[in-house]
Amino acid sequence: MSDVRILLVDDHPVVREGYRRLLERHAGFSVVAEAEDAVAAYRLYRETSPDVVIMDLSLPGAGGIEAVRHIRQWDKQARILVFTMHSAAAFALKAFEAGAAGYITKSSDAAELLRAVSTVAHGGRALSDDIAREIAAERLGEGRSLADELGPRETEILRLVASGRTSDEIAALLNLSCKTVQNYHYQIKSKIGAKTDAHLVWLAIGAGLVGDADVT
């Protein structure tokens, strides 16, 4: 049986090196390419056709959810495992909505990551225990959350707005017109009942759609 070919996406070279060593010590895994941002991830996916993409969410420019969405838009069969520090249910739900096949937090032990890669490579879905608990708790709660109101692209634009990006910058990152970004911005505020941009960010943080680290 051939090796599971992996594309590793993380913006920290030292982190990538550590995970590359971990993965390649496991018989049957081979890291065929590494990317530091969403643009490189999309390009390298098309060039190398990996079996599994291991994708961080916190990337410079367009984030991991947008990268997942873009890759899956090009290849509906892409198998993407999100591996991230974000442990909020909202992030996981948006990642799955964008097309991810698994979601593991970086607080998970090495064995859990290796199992998740194998599961995703063989067509399954993978969740770390902490994320499974978070999703269960949210779904057992009453009412709809803000995460239910926004799609993956809207969530990405909200993250970029919260990080201080201008409409022109967001348009360039996502290959959209400035007018389209402004329309998304207005729709997002309307959907979640935000009166101002500051209120928008405050609501998004409270719902777990934007992490504190994203906000400048």
Automatic annotation (TrEMBL):
GO terms for molecular function: DNA binding. Keywords: DNA-binding, Phosphoprotein. The keyword Cell inner membrane does not apply. The modification 4-aspartylphosphate is found at D56. Residues 5-121 form the Response regulatory domain. Residues 143-208 form the HTH luxR-type domain. InterPro entries: CheY-like_superfamily, NreC/VraR/RcsB-like_REC, Sig_transdc_resp-reg_C-effctor, Sig_transdc_resp-reg_receiver, Tscrpt_reg_LuxR_C, WalR-like, WH-like_DNA-bd_sf. This is DNA-binding response regulator.
